[in-house]
């Protein structure tokens, strides 16, 4: 099988591990920078070009598309879908997951537990939105932020109003969420492949920090999750249409609540903290499911 890995960082841990796993399974893996791809958009023979050649003969694509290039990266992925190539996560599903507001609305519609969330456009409604989210302390998030960037904990009403006003002056879209104090700076990353949670780790924020992201000094360890947490993670990935996802859950007093569903979850933290070969399991999934024309949307989304 010939597998394309769409990634701008061939030296990144996740990319290297996927190449290794593919080769260990007897496949050929090629790392392709999506920003260097260009497309021939035609009705009868859509093509993707790369470094002067047409990309053809691929059986599957693994998208490792960073949030900063979602628009162009998903356009390239759609082109592969139009060519009938199986994509591990489809362009429509990735776009859903990257739109934080839309993803929360989709999850809420299907009854997934979420933090109470407020969203508004007019600064005149700031106080009421803060009230909707349960008042201070609360979390303010930029919709375009990733990896903990653009996330602020406001501990008082006045601080919340001030942060929201500052973000609005930058013409930034944001939402406010209740602060789950009982989580004590910890969340659970559930790694979903297909219809299973194949690994889970608890990430603990560093002292004095409420964000548990590992690159911000947080620590990680393997954790046993409850049946409800397992079901929540699998359902969340399915609702957004993702075959592979990192579902971030907080343990609240009213059960598991989903903070985010990541369509391009990193492999280093989860593999090192659990000792599991997640990369190999991703390739196993491709082995079982990659067939020509198997992509559900075929680039229609």
Amino- and carboxy-terminal Cα gap: 26 Å
Let me know the CATH homologous superfamily of the largest domain.
ATP-grasp fold, B domain
Q: pLDDT average, as an integer?
A: 89
Instruction: Kindly state the percentage of residues in helix.
Output: 25-40%
Structure in words:
This protein folds into three domains: 2-95, 3-Layer(aba) Sandwich (Rossmann fold), CATH 3.40.50; 117-179, 2-Layer Sandwich (Dna Ligase, domain 1); 182-283, D-amino Acid Aminotransferase, Chain A, domain 1 (2-Layer Sandwich). Helix content is 32%, strand content 27%. The protein has nine helices and 16 strands. The chain has helices at residues 13-24, 70-82, 91-98, 100-109, 126-132, 157-169, 227-240, 268-274, 278-289, and strands at 2-6, 28-32, 37-40, 47-50, 53-54, 60-63, 86-87, 117-118, 138-142, 151-154, 174-178, 186-193, 196-204, 219-222, 244-252, 255-262. A five-stranded antiparallel beta sheet has the order 14-13-12-15-16, with helices on both faces. It has a four-stranded parallel beta sheet with strand order 2-1-6-7, with helices on both faces. α2 links the parallel β6 and β7. It is globular, with a radius of gyration of 20 Å. It starts with a strand and ends in a 12-residue tail after the last helix. The model has no long low-confidence stretch (mean pLDDT 89).
């Amino acid at each position: 099988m010939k597998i394309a890995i769409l990634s701008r960082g061939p030296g990144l841990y996740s990319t290297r591990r996927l190449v290794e796993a593919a080769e260990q399974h007897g496949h050929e893996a090629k790392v392709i920078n999506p920003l260097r791809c260009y497309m021939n958009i035609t009705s009868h023979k859509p093509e993707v070009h790369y470094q002067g050649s047409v990309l053809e003969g691929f059986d599957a694509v693994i998208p490792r598309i960073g949030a900063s290039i979602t628009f162009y990266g998903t356009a390239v992925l759609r082109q592969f879908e139009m060519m009938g190539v199986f994509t591990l996560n489809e362009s429509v599903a990735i776009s859903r997951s990257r739109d934080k507001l839309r993803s929360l609305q989709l999850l809420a519609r299907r009854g997934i537990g979420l933090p109470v969330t407020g969203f508004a456009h007019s600064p005149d409604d700031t106080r009421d939105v803060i009230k909707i989210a349960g008042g201070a302390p609360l979390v303010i998030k930029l919709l375009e932020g990733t990896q903990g960037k653009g996330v602020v904990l406001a501990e008082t009403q006045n601080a919340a109003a001030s942060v929201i006003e500052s973000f609005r002056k930058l013409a930034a879209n944001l939402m406010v969420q209740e602060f789950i104090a009982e989580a004590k700076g910890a969340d659970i990353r559930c790694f979903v492949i297909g219809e299973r949670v194949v690994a889970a780790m608890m990430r603990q924020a560093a002292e004095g920090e409420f964000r548990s992201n590992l690159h911000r000094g947080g620590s990680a360890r393997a954790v046993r999750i409850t049946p409800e947490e397992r079901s929540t993670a699998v359902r969340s990935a399915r609702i957004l249409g993702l075959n592979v996802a990192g579902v971030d859950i907080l343990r609240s007093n009213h059960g598991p609540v989903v903070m985010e569903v990541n369509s391009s979850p990193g492999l280093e933290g989860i593999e090192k903290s659990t000792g599991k070969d997640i990369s190999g399991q991703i390739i196993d999934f491709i082995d079982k499911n990659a067939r020509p024309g198997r992509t559900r949307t075929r680039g229609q989304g």
